[in-house]
């Protein structure tokens, strides 16, 4: 920390700081809470941020900061006082940091102004104002505010009332001992894997232990995010680990339950894979809709207005959050049913609950889309194209086929292809080459669906239809096969492909775009993998080779996507984020 005599001296001192370091300017008359300064000066997610009387800039904004400081110095004079006259029309911009923040924004650099709530941050101009500010500061417990703000603003009922009241204190305990959110995230994963192992024993004691451990894992899952918010330890790697580990924990637990059930004489692998497929398809509906409307320009639809009106009634907020069966409610249900019942009942409850939640959320999104005349951007269309995961076959069709016109053409064509593919897998004789023909029709229709930019009102349905076609086809063909252990192999294949699809979502959310095209081409795209599984089922009819082929395909896809994903996220320049919105 160094003290500058005036604005000119501040510019000299800042220029001397190594270019790769974050810098901050704080007015010497600043009065406020320590946590207000933390929020303004230490959050790594923003290139520049400010609170009244303080400003920070990360290395990427250092050049803009120095230019703004020099312009400010030239305007007010190198020896100007740190506080401008009281006649300044913008009180928060009277300080040198405030003036520089305005200059940065005028140049085009985004400056984050965090919400301080009851926290104090000000630069008093006289003794009376200082006394008032100090009184306001002393009247608020900033540690209590810090603990409150560690909890996600919009969370599920179970998480809010059964977990967060004490998990925030676990987060503070971790912070005081130097633990990082990534370490807590890893502990949550390990705990969930142990729970899956306990469930795989197939004993009542194992099921009880699994249920308890799954709840402990969820507590840690909440704690990692609260620790990140409490200590402002956000990171790109942390966001990726938090998101992907949630899927890994849930799928590993499903597998553990299925293994335990088989040991008890009840094969529920089809139910386990069905639950995973339904959950993944439900998620892609949310992801696709959100990306389609991320920057849409239009008036709020009547459906959205009704939703906002319902949110003004307290109990409806919680009821609607519980209806969608978010991760807290879902894991609590799984844990309790595991301990008290059987894996089959657990999966039945999951399938029914997730199906109802999917119907509720999808119906709401359909109504919003149909009643909102939105103008969707090129960015939204590109995001939907990336989520579609079209491989070389569909891209080849799209390149030579004329774009089909019509407001609802793309989702209608995608739905038709999905019905043809799933119907062929379900109703045609198993192993028939007619199923391969259905796959060829699916490839053709998949290409036609994405031949034009996906800017229609319901075009966000295209990626969910493709996910359903691929996942359900793999499930059905494996279930109808006489090959031993074909469904567990299919479970592994869908897990690997779903990881790729979730990874695509997280990259888009991070602003870095979808995985590279070479990766999509290498693993075939959704239509290529679907057609390949149909061919394998026809060639390897009634043979254990089908299981071997599915396993080999699962391993190959997993290796390619995991290696590329880990390489990307470890070396990524994506902005540091931490999910604040997704309940699932």
By DSSP (H or I, 4+ residues per run), the number of helices equals 24
Quick one: how many beta strands?
5
Distance between the termini: 43 Å
Q: Into which percent range does the helicity of residues fall?
A: 55-70%
Q: Mean pLDDT, nearest integer?
A: 89
Which strand order does the major sheet show?
1-4-3
Uncertain residue segments? 81-91, 578-584
Strand content: under 5%
* Main β sheet profile: 3 strands, antiparallel
Order of helices and strands: HEEHEEHHEHHHHHHHHHHHHHHHHHHHH
Principal-axis shape:
globular
Structural class: mainly alpha
Radius of gyration: 27 Å
The gist of it:
With 584 residues, the chain is mainly alpha-helical.
Throw out a few tags for this protein.
3-stranded antiparallel β-sheet, single chain, globular, disordered C terminus, 584 residues, 5 strands, mainly alpha, two-stranded antiparallel sheet
What is the secondary structure topology, with strand pairs?
Elements: H1 7-15, E1 23-26, E2 31-32, H2 34-41, E3 48-51, E4 54-57, H3 59-76, H4 96-107, E5 121-122, H5 127-138, H6 142-149, H7 157-176, H8 181-199, H9 204-231, H10 236-263, H11 269-292, H12 302-311, H13 314-323, H14 327-340, H15 343-371, H16 378-388, H17 392-400, H18 409-427, H19 433-449, H20 462-480, H21 486-509, H22 517-522, H23 525-539, H24 545-571
Antiparallel strand pairs: 1-4, 2-5, 3-4
């Amino acid at each position: 920390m160094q003290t500058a005599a005036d604005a000119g001296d501040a510019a000299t001192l800042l220029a001397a700081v190594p270019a790769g370091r974050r810098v901050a300017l704080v007015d010497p008359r600043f009065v406020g809470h320590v946590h207000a300064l933390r929020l303004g000066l230490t959050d790594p997610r923003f290139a520049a941020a400010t609170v009244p009387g303080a400003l920070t800039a990360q290395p990427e904004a250092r050049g803009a900061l120095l230019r703004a400081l020099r312009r400010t110095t030239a305007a007010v004079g190198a020896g100007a006082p740190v506080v401008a006259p009281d006649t300044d029309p913008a009180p928060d911009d009277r300080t040198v940091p405030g003036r520089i923040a305005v200059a940065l924004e005028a140049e085009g650099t985004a400056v984050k102004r965090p919400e301080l709530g009851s926290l104090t941050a000000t630069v008093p101009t006289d003794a009376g104002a200082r006394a008032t500010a100090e009184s306001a500061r002393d009247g608020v417990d900033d540690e209590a505010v810090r603990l409150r703000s560690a909890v996600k603003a919009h969370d599920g009922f179970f998480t809010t009332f059964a977990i967060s009241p004490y998990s925030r204190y676990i987060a503070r305990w971790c912070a005081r001992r130097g633990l990082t959110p990534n370490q807590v995230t890893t502990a949550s994963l390990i705990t969930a894997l142990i729970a899956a192992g306990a469930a795989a024993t197939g004993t009542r004691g194992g099921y009880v232990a699994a249920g308890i451990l799954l709840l402990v894992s969820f507590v840690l899952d909440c704690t990692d995010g609260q620790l990140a918010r409490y200590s402002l330890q956000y990171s790109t790697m942390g966001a990726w680990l938090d998101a992907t580990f949630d899927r890994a924990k849930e799928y590993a637990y499903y597998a553990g339950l299925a293994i335990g059930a088989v040991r008890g004489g009840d094969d529920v692998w089809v139910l386990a894979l069905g639950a995973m497929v339904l959950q993944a398809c439900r998620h892609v509906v949310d992801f696709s809709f959100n990306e389609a409307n991320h920057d849409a320009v239009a008036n709020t639809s009547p459906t959205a207005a009704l939703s906002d009106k319902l949110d003004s009634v307290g109990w409806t907020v919680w009821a609607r959050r519980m209806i969608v069966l978010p991760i807290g409610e879902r894991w609590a249900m799984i844990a309790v049913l595991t301990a008290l019942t059987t894996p089959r009942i657990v999966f039945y409850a999951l399938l029914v609950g997730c199906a109802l939640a999917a119907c509720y959320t999808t119906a709401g999104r359909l109504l919003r889309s149909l009643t909102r005349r939105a103008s969707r951007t090129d960015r939204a269309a590109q995001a939907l194209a990336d989520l579609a995961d079209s491989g070389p076959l569909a891209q080849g069709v799209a390149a030579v086929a004329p774009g089909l016109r019509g407001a609802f053409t793309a989702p209608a064509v995608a739905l038709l292809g999905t019905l043809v593919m799933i119907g062929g897998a379900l109703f045609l004789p198993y192993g028939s080459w007619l199923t391969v023909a259905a796959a060829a029709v699916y490839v053709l229709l998949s290409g036609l669906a994405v031949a034009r930019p996906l800017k229609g009102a319901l075009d966000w349905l295209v990626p969910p239809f493709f996910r359903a076609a691929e996942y359900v086809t793999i499930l059905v063909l494996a279930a109808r096969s006489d090959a031993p252990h074909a469904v567990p192999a299919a479970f592994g294949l869908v897990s690997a492909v779903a990881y790729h699809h979730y990874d695509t979502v997280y990259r888009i959310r991070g602003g870095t775009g979808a995985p590279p095209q070479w990766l999509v081409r290498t693993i075939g795209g959704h239509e290529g993998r679907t057609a390949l599984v149909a061919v394998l089922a026809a060639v390897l009819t009634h043979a254990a080779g089908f299981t071997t082929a599915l396993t080999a395909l699962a391993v190959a896809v997993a290796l390619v996507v995991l290696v590329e994903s880990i390489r990307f996220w470890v070396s990524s320049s994506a902005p540091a984020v931490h999910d604040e919105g997704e309940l699932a």
